[in-house]
């Protein structure tokens, strides 16, 4: 639960989501975007409570989302009749142990920062080739929005971005980092020394459900 809470807080800080509260052991993040009004974040033990909140709120069909720890085949019954969209992976690393990679030439990398979020961007051939963020809250950090333009993939840019973010977070006294990885991203982070804590099932209310 501590890892899930740390991830949620950093993820919300990265995205600028500040309307957050706890209801029945479920963290409610009110996002307010047209396709994602709210996100209910909970451990497997509280999946039923999260599903109930999603099914009884007043949001349009398909706009109430959930992030629940545990494998999809085990939490599916607790989430029914919600739609399971995918499985991500909650991961962690001691920042001092993350493998470091340099920025490959001819690319360059720039950092910018707010009080709680560091952003890295890799530039090459006249455009932004890759980038990402890391929210830093006390001694914990959360990596988010790590992306590489398709035209610049397989050149080590995501690894270089993660290296720059980890170094910046350590300079801010962070010691441990978390992230939610896709199946594809999980391979990248494992190569950097990250370990998997738990599957993270992403679900939402049905687009065709009636309220």
DSSP helix count? Answer: 5
Report how far apart the termini are: 31 Å
What fraction of the residues are assigned to beta strands by DSSP?
35-45%
Order of helices and strands: HEEEHEHEEEEEHEHE
Spatial arrangement of strands, main beta sheet: 1-2-3-4-11-5-10-9-8-7-6
In terms of structural class, how would the helical and strand content be classed?
Answer: alpha+beta
Mean pLDDT: 96
Percent of residues in helices comes to 25-40%
Whole-angstrom Rg: 18 Å
Summarize this entry quickly.
By secondary structure, the protein is α+β, with helices and mostly antiparallel strands. It is built from five helices and eleven strands; from the N terminus they run H-E-E-E-H-E-H-E-E-E-E-E-H-E-H-E.
List the helices and strands and how they pair.
Layout: H1 2-15, E1 20-23, E2 26-33, E3 36-42, H2 47-56, E4 64-69, H3 72-79, E5 83-94, E6 108-113, E7 117-124, E8 127-137, E9 140-148, H4 157-171, E10 176-181, H5 183-191, E11 195-204
Parallel strand pairs: 3-4, 9-10
Antiparallel strand pairs: 1-2, 2-3, 4-11, 5-10, 5-11, 6-7, 7-8, 8-9
